[in-house]
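[Q] Does anyone have a clean structure-token version of this?
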Amino acid sequence: MNFVRFPSVSVQPKHARDVKRCAAWLGNHLKKVGLQKVKIVPTHRHPIVYAEWLQAARFPTVLIYGHYDVQPPDPLSEWTSPPFEPSVRGNNLYGRGACDDKGQLFTHVKAIEACLRTTGRLPVNVKCLFEGEEEIGSPNLTGFIERNRRILGAHLAVISDTRTLGPNRPSLTYSLRGQLGLELEVRGPRHDLHSGNFGGAVHNPLQALCEVIAQLHDKHGRVTIPGFYDRVRRSSEMEWAYMQRNGPSDRQILRDAQVERGWEECGYSHYERVTVRPSLTVNVTTGGYQGVGGKAVIPSRALAKLSFRLVPDQDPHEIEIFFRRYIARITPPTVKCIVRTNQLANPAVIDRGHPALHAAVAA
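[A] Here you go.
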């Protein structure tokens, strides 16, 4: 529970010291467990924690990845218990990060500890790579990996940062959608204007932003950006049949989301839409006065944050180019649109027949 108590919110500068404290605590815990060569590696933002145990000669080496940073807990008013004061209710531990990804990371650490305490050794060689920047797109991870290729060399990597299908229903993820995070800013007048004096004569940037966003999907839920679907890989008949047999039903997914009706691309199940189909989501829109009561202004700017989930073989760099071209085409001449890129992550897929997956199934 101490692990969850650290407010290791990587995106907020006010928590930078908390992230470092969390990394130091994790490093000390890995030493107590029995792992060796534990290092806290500083980066330009948040530390990477590394540890290893390499005494299983002639056996494979497994790299275990996890992240100890968490997303912001806001809005705090919606928490039953404080996010960084972990609470046990029933069989569940509640707290920010308990299931993304401190809980999963700790599962591996405790498994290593159990093996070392009971048998004095591990059945394979293990390297642990735990970072503090996953929630902000891992800006320093690639450079760290490139500089330490020899040290990090392994036969396979294990990542536990995905969902299971339910209690007593463990699942193996062999494909993950990639991500493209963008900000779309619309600028209008140089400063806020009084809507009584200029309403109807000046195009409101907040209204223009809504008009642009409304053109990102058609009425059937398909993304309208030209070229967006060109590289989308079609599922094989075998994979489609497997998903139909083993995946959650539409009703289950809607129940998990606590909504009554679904939305999105026609012709696909909800399970397909959240796994093998790409998506575009509007995460944030903001503009104008945000305080109590009203304020009769035309805001000078408005902002939206967008998140793409991309499937093999989509390229986030290419999708970014398509998006910028489309926005330039549909932007009203009365305003100016600015696009900023925050996150890029490639989609991933591995062979379901890989020996590592067979070993995982057996386990």
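[Q] Thanks! Anything notable?
[A] Residues 178-232+278-346 form a domain with the Alpha-Beta Plaits fold (CATH 3.30.70.360).
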